[in-house]
Amino acid sequence: MTQTTARPHAAVLGGGVMGEALVTALLAAGWTADDVDVTERSAARAMELSGRYGVRAADPNAKAVKGAGLVLIAVKPQVVPDVLTEIAPTLRPGTLVVSVAAGIPVAVYEAALPEGTPVVRVMPNTPALVGKGASAIAPGTHATDEHLDLAERALAATGLVVRVAERDLDAVTAISGSGPAYALYLIDAMAEAGVLLGLTRDLATRLAVATVEGSAALAAQTGDHPVVLRERVSSPGGTTVAGVAQLDAHGVRAGVVAAARAAYDRSRELGAAAAPSPRGDR
Ligand SMILES: NC(=O)C1=CN([C@@H]2O[C@H](COP(=O)(O)OP(=O)(O)OC[C@H]3O[C@@H](n4cnc5c(N)ncnc54)[C@H](OP(=O)(O)O)[C@@H]3O)[C@@H](O)[C@H]2O)C=CC1
Ligand SMILES: O=C(O)[C@@H]1CCC=N1
């Protein structure tokens, strides 16, 4: 059965950073609090989310998915196999399973869940919390365009959502999934430099945040290549070329590439660890 209801009852499994972002996204996209259940390992955290958003703190996972037409998995990758074992017996036919877990291949979900279960993998990022996220979604074997549409409706309030093939998700994870940490690392470094040069920390941080936000907006709104935009900041013989030469001298570009490569490799490792063993004896 294909689940195409506009806003089916949703169960968010795992109410950590990303689970909370998904709960807020659903509510912002028009789901009512009555239509969203959230499960957690710790009852205190589940109650916290329930108190904050009015959603139902439901447990265990097997019970939460019983009445759901949309299940969103937001536990750590290492916990995904156990959660799939828990929910497989009670998942309704046709319920769309959406997972944000890094690295875990669609094949792992499809092997553990009832035959024909539609699965969509999502790689979101934390700016989703303020509607400025970037998410990529990839369909499993049984996910139709309608299932992708439903996943997009669920993510509508989080920001940019793009459709990709599953093979691209490790790279997406390395760039936009982990990317906010790289950007925030830069902001922190710029603010720290401002303090070193005599600004107050508050002023330096505000300037660094506004500068990175403004630069991103400039790139997004003009569509100009980042190098062209960078050249416009760089007056001949001026301050910017002096500064950027130091970024090159300190290998910052190479560091960013190495960071993304390491995140990509880690995403693949997480997937390999969760994959059924060749002997099929997991
Ligand atoms: N944070 C991010 O920027 C992004 C994260 N993701 C993915 O989102 C997923 C969650 O990450 P994140 O939110 O950062 O991690 P968190 O640790 O913040 O959230 C996971 C939550 O799941 C809870 N949990 C553990 N076991 C169960 C269970 N059996 N049933 C229900 N809940 C359970 C954890 O509780 P406890 O802490 O008590 O174990 C925790 O609160 C990961 O798979 C990650 O790859 C994807 C993109 C970006
Ligand atoms: O660090 C992680 O593993 C998750 C996935 C992408 C961002 N955070």
Q: Quick one: how many beta strands?
A: 8
For the largest beta-sheet, the strand count, sense and barrel status come to:
8 strands, mixed
CATH C-level name of the largest domain: Alpha Beta
Discrete helix count? 12
Residue stretches low in confidence (pLDDT < 50, at least 5 long) are none
What CATH calls the topology of the largest domain is: Rossmann fold
Describe the structure.
The protein has 282 residues and is of the alpha/beta class. It has 2 domains: 10-172, NAD(P)-binding Rossmann-like Domain (Rossmann fold), CATH 3.40.50.720; 179-267, ProC C-terminal domain-like (ProC C-terminal domain-like fold, Orthogonal Bundle), CATH 1.10.3730. Helices cover 52% and strands 12% of the residues. The chain has helices at residues 17-28, 43-53, 61-66, 80-87, 106-112, 145-155, 169-177, 179-196, 201-222, 226-233, 239-249, 252-274; strands spanning 10-13, 36-39, 56-57, 70-73, 96-99, 119-123, 133-139, 159-163. It has an 8-stranded mixed beta sheet with strand order 3-2-1-4-5-6-7-8, with helices on both faces. Helix 7 (169-177) packs across helix 12 and helix 8 (179-196) packs across helix 9. The longest helix is centred in the last third of the chain and has 23 residues, at 252-274. The relative contact order is 0.11. The structure holds NADPH dihydro-nicotinamide-adenine-dinucleotide phosphate and (2S)-3,4-dihydro-2H-pyrrole-2-carboxylic acid. GO terms for molecular function: pyrroline-5-carboxylate reductase activity. NADP(+) binds at residues 13-18, 74-77. One of its GO terms (biological process) is L-proline biosynthetic process. Its EC number is 1.5.1.2. It is found in: Cytoplasm.
